[in-house]
């Protein structure tokens, strides 16, 4: 079977869609004329016949491949097995870039032309196009007659380019198949497929060893990172080992490296470095540990919770609230009470802002679809981001992920129920929330939705009656599942409904009597009760210890000493005051746009959590969280034991977020009305507790 490069592109586009696509859209996507597509479709119809598939054409609507899904999968696998006799222009440019990145010597144009089976003029034209693509990486294509072609740039820039092209061209399933040594694509030439050629930049054995090290260390991380971030880290480390062996060491500013060494992620990075040193018997420069730290700090997370009590998170929370307010105002809808949206934004923005500041970049394969389906929302979110972050240039890829968070919040339906539905999304919490919301909106009877990662899939106990819905193909997964897009088309909704009916039939067969109904284990019940106990205990402590004082004409230090002296929940008031002042030295504690200062700490001498407010007669001058000088006449003080259970930290985080929830909440806290503030706190915390109990009962 012969399939041209262009026909491969058309087949890939049509097979992955569950709805019609116009010939014009096809032509635009692969950058050819409509006439050329019509000519290719005649050949494609013959290819489809061999697999009992049909190309259905609807006038004014578009074209679509219809037929048995198994046959479609068979065709897709057959296409991937084909030996590439020609490449698309994009594939050709990727292959040229791989060759230039791999070698330290100039490459002859004739050698590139022979490898790719094209003319020297074609290679020269591809190099011209590559020049503009490489500009963002600070890399230049150097061409000299009789000398050859080479890339000019730093080792750091070359590695960044390598990571970027791998991320753009290799999906998670292909990568996972490789590291598990079960590649589905086995073409006649092992370097024929683009993904295999890209991953060929690193020895497969190195990838396997590095993946094992990352897996071991990842298990000890205090937060879960998205599959794409996990894979990105493995690729980063494997490339680093490969390049160090070839003498390619990176440089890092000493002062910046020292700042990174103070970050909690540095210890994790050093642990990885030490393990890699031992395995590969090589010296790894300190700068490499610094870059691993940066990768961890910029990793997309898979969790949807962030303790706003943490210093950096509180500053991000302020920005998240500002962005939500902007979108609220522009769309005339209420979003500030949506805790899921708020938490999701804080979780996404924290590493995203780091990536933007460090010019690390990110890929978003869903961007074209997001811009097409959510064009108006994309424009509003982009405008909001420009207003909230005026000093930053935020790429459209990041805007796209933010749109998914807001898009998932707009319908607002959150039903719950007994059926388990596992959602596999590789790109993080925004994508999964978008899909979950679309499923809940279109199929409200679909309940018990749970997000799991690609790496957790085979370790998760999934019953026969459970549903598995994924946004990526799962060739190694043995049981029935369906693949949909995060946007969920009408056809995909019907596919999910049919899937539900099949699983329901399995469920009925397995439940002949009510006595055999699945129940929660004693361990699960015990864990839920323990969590509720921690939640209620923390809320009770906060409400009973809450107080507001008139501190009079005092400095901030004197007010803190007085405030700590009034609490009987401290082992040493002086030690806690010292910790609060040390915290102030690390950065601003004033809340921008208010007259409030937020002093908080976690300390071993704090026996129980507390939140208190202290009013000053005379404002004090201090630094805000935006590092601008400001006045404050209200001191908010939050104290937490250290260590403290996760539920307690979550409650304190919720209270921290409450403070900046809206203009009304800020005005209330600045009013000095103790009774109203306590009523407001109690009401909010009761809502929080009810939501947590509901969550725990649905597990």
Automatic annotation (TrEMBL):
User: Where does the PRD domain start and stop, copy by copy?
Assistant: 201-306, 311-416
Instruction: Point out the coiled-coil segments of this chain.
Output: none
**CDD domains to which the protein is assigned, alphabetical:** PTS_IIB_bgl_like
MF (Gene Ontology): protein-N(PI)-phosphohistidine-sugar phosphotransferase activity
Q: Sorted alphabetically, which keywords does the UniProt record give?
A: Repeat, Sugar transport, Transcription, Transcription regulation, Transferase, Transport
Could you give a single Gene Ontology term from the biological process aspect? regulation of DNA-templated transcription
InterPro entries named among the record's database cross-references: BglG_antiterminators, HTH_11, PRD, PRD_sf, PTrfase/Anion_transptr, PTS_EIIA_type-2_dom, PTS_EIIB-like_sf, PTS_EIIB_2
Residue intervals of the PTS EIIB type-2 domain: 419-508
Domain PTS EIIA type-2 as annotated: residue spans: 537-684
Gene3D superfamilies for this protein: 3.40.50.2300, Mannitol-specific EII, Chain A, PRD domain, Winged helix-like DNA-binding domain superfamily/Winged helix DNA-binding domain
Q: Which Pfam families did the record assign?
A: HTH_11 (PF08279), PRD (PF00874), PTS_EIIA_2 (PF00359)
Could you identify this protein by its name? PTS sugar transporter
Q: What is the lineage of its organism?
A: Bacteria, Bacillati, Bacillota, Bacilli, Bacillales
